[in-house]
Write a structure and sequence with these properties.
Helix content is 53%, strand content 12%. Strands 10, 11, 12, 13, 14, 15, 16 and 17 form an eight-stranded mixed β-sheet that branches. Strands 1, 4, 5, 7 and 8 form a five-stranded mixed β-sheet that branches. A three-stranded antiparallel β-sheet has the order 18-20-19. Helix 10 runs antiparallel to helix 16, helix 26 packs antiparallel against helix 27 (636-654) and helix 31 (726-743) crosses helix 32 (754-766).
Length: 813
């Protein structure tokens, strides 16, 4: 037993200095649940003194027992650490002769005689450098894994010590194993096999699968039967030679494919660390442990974040890398494939996709096969389901093309688990908001290029806090098992025919992903302050009024949370205002009565972008407040009925999480919260407005004001011209909204934007309130009229008259 302890002062000193000098900035995932009153045994993968001293350094930082000190268990002395390497490299029949195996067996035997004893085994993965091996290779993965000895390990620490990952697993209780399985030598064998699989999966989760050489990938894709057939069809269609068609295919593959370089990732990480420290006061991360657990279980992970800025993919990759996960291959727009950015992005894992390629069968085939190859090899992938950046702050309608290819890839290999991870990314300052403002005003989108990057550097400043929340993952296999129980029966991996259920399922999955992204939203000082000030007349409030309104929002969000996934700032109202002032999103003025908080006059129109980030979280409370203010006194049944009529449109447009069946319970909670905040009083089934806090309720109600106006415009136009097409309805609604924004001084730029009106109109169609049919029966017309009356009663009479007169004058547009 004594031979297992580390000896040699010189070697100890050398290893200790090596770790202290070269190993910095460790990405350590501490997920321990250890009772310090019980003994701990650390189980390492490799027989390495360098690993042992790296573990010791980390244990001392985490206030865990020193692995170099022996431990006494039931009167016997044991080492605090064990190695698995010898066990994994030997045949199983020799395991009983190994000292480590004997040690574990002795500990197991002690549990039979010591009832109170419970030794905790903690598996520790230690990885220096995350350079994946490349393929094809003539040596096996296990042999490559074993090369981390001796000089290879020494140089790994010297060169890549800054890029080390030390991760502790959850404890394994020997007492629980004894209780469940009893004492049996086979239990130790099983424990060793499980530990071995654990270490391999940990390494795969951190380093990733072996990389395909780009020329090898090119050859493999060209040999694909699907691409070979597409080349032949291309040659016939364009009347060109087979060689020319093949050359065009090679050009497409090179245009699309990534060219991952670990050296580029390593250098970029160092650069980005410096940049983030300058730009952001903090990066707030939540839910990343879910992703790690998926990776450890061998899932292929597809990251599906919302898209607000070009910072999104840089920030997400940086976070994943520092969580100890290998970087995903990222779908980037072809507009970013310019020198030198395109080349750099390829090195970092980006592959490029054209905006439209429905009419180009060769391109779509090549792209589908390339993405399928990534999934087949177990690479994680990242794409933005919205297609492009949101110009308004709302989530955009999802584009289902990438999701469709993802499901097709899974159907080709039905045993591969693929999980979609929705991600909410939020900022207190978005660099591109000014350009979004210009685009909403009708200006042409500026093309990305090297000059635009240099020009944008002058806008780099304090961006405040950023938020990255990982939402609830969606397992594709589990989803299909739940909704299409017999989906495997209709799958033919060799067929290019889609199952009949595939298209509607892809649409439903896209909607579910958007809902889960919204569930993981982050509230911050900027979007709360802007929400309150935009609701006020002249966009100004006294400091006291603003503090009270922020308190109202915070209590609503905490007492009736939108979702358990959302994050609420742990700051007082005063701290929120001071932070927003530091970010220069709001400013103060003093008058004879005190301090007034206002929005700067010039950016009022585009500050609504930040309000729209959390609009979905306050829209139902805002609707209730609007109804209460309009009617002053209303029965609970009538209140719930009106909300129930409008809610399906809001749900479809904003990807709200509650099913219609859950609405009564939600409304009960909100009405109770309104009563607690003294906005209303309840007398049996009658709800009446309290005038004392009416001002705060009016500010809350103002949040949905413009949405209800747009709904009224759309229904008013359709009632005038029931035969209008959806496309024409969007155009007419935009014209009327633009006129109304001038007449009624509506300053939010997205009010008359066609990109906003289109999903609203589709939401109204999805809710079944208007239809494409030219022949409606009397009951349907009466229902539409009824919905219109409810909506028009919830907006001011001046706005209602302006809408009706404008619509009447523009029926012949």
């Amino acid at each position: 037993m004594e031979s297992m302890f580390i000896n040699g002062r010189l070697s100890d000193f050398f290893c200790n200095r090596l770790i202290k000098t070269f190993v910095h900035n460790q990405a350590c995932q501490n997920n321990l649940d250890i009772d310090s009153t019980y003994p701990i045994i650390y189980l390492l993968c490799e027989h390495s003194k360098i690993d042992l001293f790296a573990l010791r350094e980390q244990c001392l930082q985490l206030d865990l027992p020193d692995p170099l000190k022996p431990i006494e268990i039931a009167g016997r002395i044991f080492p605090h650490y064990l190695y698995l390497q010898d066990l994994t490299m030997q045949h199983s029949s020799y395991m009983t002769h190994l000292a480590s195996f004997a040690c574990l067996n002795d500990i197991l035997l002690l549990h039979e005689y010591q009832v109170a004893l419970d030794v905790q085994v903690v598996l520790v993965s230690i990885i220096f450098g995350r350079m994946p091996s490349r393929e094809p290779q003539n040596i096996s993965y296990i042999k490559k894994y074993a090369e981390l000895y001796g000089m290879y390990k020494f140089f790994s620490v010297c060169i890549f010590g800054r890029d080390s990952v030390i991760r502790f697993s959850q404890k394994v209780s020997i007492r629980q194993i004894m209780t469940k399985y009893g004492h049996d030598k086979e239990i130790i064998h099983k424990l060793i096999r499980v530990a071995r699989i654990h270490f391999i999966r940990e390494r795969l989760a951190t380093v990733g699968p072996r990389l395909l050489e780009r020329h090898y990938l090119l050859q493999k894709l060209l040999q694909s039967k699907v691409i070979t057939q597409a080349i032949e069809e291309e040659a016939k269609k364009k009347n060109i030679s087979h060689k020319k068609a093949q050359k065009n295919t090679i050009i497409l593959i090179k245009e699309i494919s990534a060219n991952v370089s670990y050296l580029a990732i390593y250098c970029t990480d160092y650069l980005m660390r410096l940049i983030w420290e300058k730009l952001y006061q903090g990066i707030n991360i939540r839910g990343s442990q879910r992703v790690l657990q998926l990776a450890q279980r061998g899932h292929t992970i597809v990251y599906v974040p919302c898209h607000k800025s070009h910072m999104d993919y840089l920030l997400l990759s940086y976070i994943l890398y520092h969580q100890g996960l290998f970087l995903p291959h990222i779908a980037a727009g072809i507009n970013l494939n310019f020198w030198p950015v395109g080349t750099i992005f390829r090195y970092l894992g980006a592959f490029f996709i054209r905006r439209e390629f429905k009419c180009n069968k060769l391109y779509s085939t090549v792209f589908r096969e390339y993405l399928g190859e990534l999934f087949d090899r177990g690479y994680s992938v990242e794409y933005f389901v919205e297609g492009g950046r949101s110009r308004s702050g709302y989530l955009r309608s999802p584009k289902t093309g990438m999701l469709l290819v993802t499901l097709q890839s899974m159907l080709r290999a039905t045993n591969r688990p693929i999980s979609l991870v929705p991600i909410y990314i939020g900022y207190e300052h978005v660099l591109e908001v000014r350009s979004y403002k210009n685009e909403l005003r009708g200006m042409t989108k500026k093309k990305e290029g090297f000059r635009s990057i240099v020009h944008g550097l002058r806008y780099l400043r304090n961006f405040g806090q950023s938020y990255v929340n990982f939402g609830e993952p969606l397992s594709l296999v589990n989803y299909l098992n739940r909704h299409i129980p017999e989906w495997r029966k209709g799958v033919n991996p060799r067929s290019s025919q889609h199952p009949a259920w595939l298209t509607p399922v892809v649409h439903n999955i896209a909607q579910e992903i958007m809902i889960r992204i919204n569930n993981a939203a982050a509230v911050n000082a900027i979007n709360l302050s802007v929400t309150a000030l935009l609701a006020a007349q002249e966009c100004s409030l006294t400091r006291q009024q603003l503090m009270e309104q922020l308190a109202c929002y915070l209590q609503l969000l905490k007492n009736v949370p939108y979702s358990l996934e959302t994050t609420i700032p742990n700051m007082t109202e005063h701290e929120l205002i001071e932070h927003a002032l530091c970010m220069k999103k709001i400013k103060t003025q003093k008058d004879s009565t005190g301090q007034v908080i206002i929005l700067p006059e010039e950016p009022v129109g585009w500050l609504s972008y930040y309000r729209n980030n959390i609009y979905h979280m306050l829209v139902v409370p805002s609707l209730i407040a609007t109804i209460l203010i309009q009617y002053k006194k209303i029965s609970r049944i009538e209140l719930y009925r009106q909300v129930g009529i409008i809610y399906p449109i809001l749900k479809s447009e904003l990807f709200l999480r509650w099913h219609v069946n859950e609405l009564p319970h939600l409304l009960d909670l909100l009405v109770s919260e309104f009563a607690r905040q003294e906005f209303l009083r309840q007398e049996k089934n009658i709800i009446s407005l309290k005038e004392d806090n009416c001002y705060k309720l009016k500010l809350l109600a103002s949040g949905i004001r413009e949405t209800l106006q747009l709904y009224t415009i759309i229904l008013s136009i359709w009632m005038q011209q029931p035969q209008v097409t959806r496309k024409l309805l969007v155009k007419k609604s935009s014209v009327v909204a633009r006129r109304l924004s001038v007449l009624c001084h509506i300053r939010t730029l997205e009010f008359c934007d066609k990109a906003i009106l289109t999903p609203i109109i589709f939401a109204i169609y999805d809710a079944g309130y208007i239809k494409d049919s030219l022949c409606l029966n009397d009951a349907e017309e009466s229902n539409i009229q009824h919905v219109y009356v409810i909506l028009s009663n919830l907006i001011s009479q001046d706005i209602k008259i302006a809408i009706e007169s404008t619509v009447k004058n523009h029926t012949c547009i």
